[in-house]
Sequence to fold (618 residues):
Amino acid sequence: MSYDPLPPVLAVRAFESVSRHLSFTKAGDELGKTQAAVSYQIKVLEDRLGFPVFVRKARKIELTDKGMNLASKVIGAFSDLRSAFAEIREENDTQLVIGCNATFASRWLAARLFDFQIANPDLAIRIIPTDNKDQYSRGDRDITISGCYDPPSDNVLHSLIPADFTPMLHPSLAESIGGINEPADLLKLPIIDPADHWWPLWFAKAGLPDPDFANWPSSRMGSQGLEASRAIAGKGVAILTPFFYRTELESGQLIQPFDIVENDPGMAWHLSYPPENRSSRKVRLFRDWIFAELRKDGLDLPQVGDKAA
Amino acid sequence: MSYDPLPPVLAVRAFESVSRHLSFTKAGDELGKTQAAVSYQIKVLEDRLGFPVFVRKARKIELTDKGMNLASKVIGAFSDLRSAFAEIREENDTQLVIGCNATFASRWLAARLFDFQIANPDLAIRIIPTDNKDQYSRGDRDITISGCYDPPSDNVLHSLIPADFTPMLHPSLAESIGGINEPADLLKLPIIDPADHWWPLWFAKAGLPDPDFANWPSSRMGSQGLEASRAIAGKGVAILTPFFYRTELESGQLIQPFDIVENDPGMAWHLSYPPENRSSRKVRLFRDWIFAELRKDGLDLPQVGDKAA
DNA sequence: ATCATGCATAAGGGAGACTTATGCATGAGT
DNA sequence: ACTCATGCATAAGTCTCCCTTATGCATGAT
Fold:
């Protein structure tokens, strides 16, 4: 005998609209339905309640006492619902959450994000650091920048920066062994994270046999920045992506002894977002901006279109 | 570009339930749907919103930040809705509104309603006077008692009291002409509302020709009580329904000079209510009570069943 | 008196809500 | 470690019931 206290929601929705307009026809317009549909829903509601909520008069309807009682509360509740969804939409439209891995964030994004902020003062930007495991935009962020091997295929992907790498070190360290003249000279110096599998790849390209480093613990991914810090401090030779160390190279904090640059074809830095965000203004703005910025940096990126991979 | 701020209500409803249970399956149970149906509705919502509201984890789901934000408000709004409908149901269940015409109310109901009230202390009873034009229960009342000619066929009808009538007057008035011995004697006295069409009917039954009263203005229906007052005051002869004047006849305030009682076949006092009220507890209680009371008064009423006419 | 407005209702169609069935991922249990 | 149980996602198909179309009716306006 105890049933759901809530009548069918579609009927409640119809009632809410009708009780505001005091017209089935106008409510139908508002709801994108016909007058007959509204009439039907109100009948459903009244049948369920067991009493009429409107008095049908000639050319107009009026709320019954009980209908009036209900209407004020139902209208209020729907008003709350509308505010809730309007608010969340507003928040969603104006808050851009960028998931970004540490290297890209510190080596590139941080210095330029301010420009984007200035160009788009209506957007509130939040960066959340992501390790390279969860590169998916999973509801906690709108867009993700990651450097990883297994790009998620269910997200829209834009490759940004290829995973190029080459050894780098502080000039004083090079001088300490009388300068670096050939690749093999590097082996005279401490190797920062010798477990990094980029090393054998680069030595191979440089024409040297696999140096076969001891199995040191590796902390490669996501910590290129840490390796760089040690190199800048003169603690050893790191294998880094030159794109991210242009300023250090220019200022002389790091030197790149060889033009030999190898590429890791399985990896890249890329930008990704769920397909439904394609039409999102804030995501488009950010995507287009980052592409433009990277082109200024001399990267050859495909014209931005939805299909860009 | 501006769309309805409110996502499809069915999706909102599903979201509300899921966010309370944090389970699609449980929400499905609550809504009387399958888990798949809920999953579908949540997808509809998320597609519409453009962002996920739940994070799907292994054997559970969690609200995203935005989902959390929404949930609190949506749950609140639905709680308001539920209260509103629960309250109105409560009010509807415990308040019995009786529309009653003046004659029946004053001549019969008033004296006995107290008993019903005592027998049903959980019901709050309200009597609203109705003229005999709007005998329909139109949302402002649960049940109607009226004396009229055109019983509304779309309502459930119970005949209560036949429209019997016979002349009545104060004994002093009768004595003023030396007593009433035959129907024609009445014509020597003032006739209260001679336009009342009951007069010719009664005189016909009494075997007299149509007295052919002048065309006095009539205020018959609904004012039998007023006519009676004038008769009791000795101002004339009224044609009344004896059932309603038993006490006056017993106490001698009125006398009924003849046993000749005519009946108006087109009219009766009856009780009516919309068909959907058949299953209403309060309406059944009142209907059964009034039938029982009238039987005590010696009326031969059909056994109460839904079909009783 | 005629027309316009607004709701009710019947009949019918169709959209989309729902079910069934299945897969997959993960955590629990042994 | 292997198996089982749980819970959500998804595809396909069904069917409900919501909605539209068409019409009627009552009433107020012109």
